[in-house]
Amino acid sequence: MRYGDDDRESQNVEDRRSERGPMFRFPGGGAEGPRIQIPLTGGGLTTLLIIGAIMLFLGINPLELLTQQYPDVPQLPQTEVPKSPGRQAQRGPDIPGLPGGTSVRSEDDMKRFVSQVLADTEDVWTQVFGGFGKRYSEPQMVLFAGATRTACGTGVAQMGPFYCPLDRKIYIDLSFYDMLKRKFEAPGDFAQAYVIAHEVGHHVQKLLGIADKVQELKEQSGESDANALQVRMELQADCLAGVWANLNDQVKNRLQPGDVEEGLNAASQIGDDMIQRRTQGQVVPDAFTHGSSAQRVRWFKKGLESGEIAQCDTFNTNSL
After folding, report:
1. pLDDT per residue as tens digits for the range 216-258
2. What pTM, to 2 d.p., does this model score?
3. How far is CA 153 from CA 138, 204, 206, 226, 318, in A?
4. Where is this region: Disordered (predicted)?
5. DSSP class of 23
6. Which end of the chain is least crowded, N or C, by CB within 10 Å?
7. Which helix (H) or strand (E) holds 179?
8. Is residue 77 part of a domain?
9. What's the maximum distance between 2 C-alpha atoms anywhere in the chain?
């Protein structure tokens, strides 16, 4: 990706990497899953979910939406932004088994990079929400090492990056990126940005009311149905990450040759089927919580190619 020293860094980054010690746990709060759990069962609940999301997003009575279609989403204005060569990611030598080489960054460089990516998500979603006359509430990103406290319970590095809807913060141990590169064979700066954009997608879902409505439905669902609905939520976050990448590049010219391939590869490598094959040697679709590799690639690509939130309706489709 194309970033320079003059590019803005988000001020919503809290660095807790020096806070190493025992794991935290709050009274009454267990360590919840790394991402929002999404239950959807049947067309009736799906319709209710979409109606509730649109209601909170547009600020109108949901009864007025029963006979309306999904609204058009305004695209990011084509504001002229000075384009300069910037500081391109430093690519190291190719490592056997890893496509396209690797990005070499110090910890300070990595913090600067994730702060710049978060700043770009703020700029894009602020303008998109503003197109609806709504204010985008920016999430915080917490950098930690090993374990940290969250409103959702104890956050640990083994979870991977995750979003806690209770405190509206994104948590990430930057060592995950080394795992993404070496264990999941998904190196590259755009792959790293995709991970952040996916978690920000969950924040967008929270602001739209989708997360709360689905959590209510999940509590009424069995494990299998809850898993199936969570998959739809995760795939929508993948699509929203693609939408962000499209709109961000339109204005800031961030993408470089090979970046799209990095993102698609990352989406593929962290599909449930790929992870299950690595960890247990067999694929169990009923246990999927984030979607297969093919599904994650499809929805990320759909958002990336369209740049339209309306294309991210994973809830009203029989074909994921």
Report:
1. 888 888 888 888 888 899 999 999 999 999 999 999 989 888 8
2. 0.72
3. 22, 21, 18, 20, 34
4. 1-32, 74-106
5. P
6. C
7. helix 176-182
8. no
9. 58
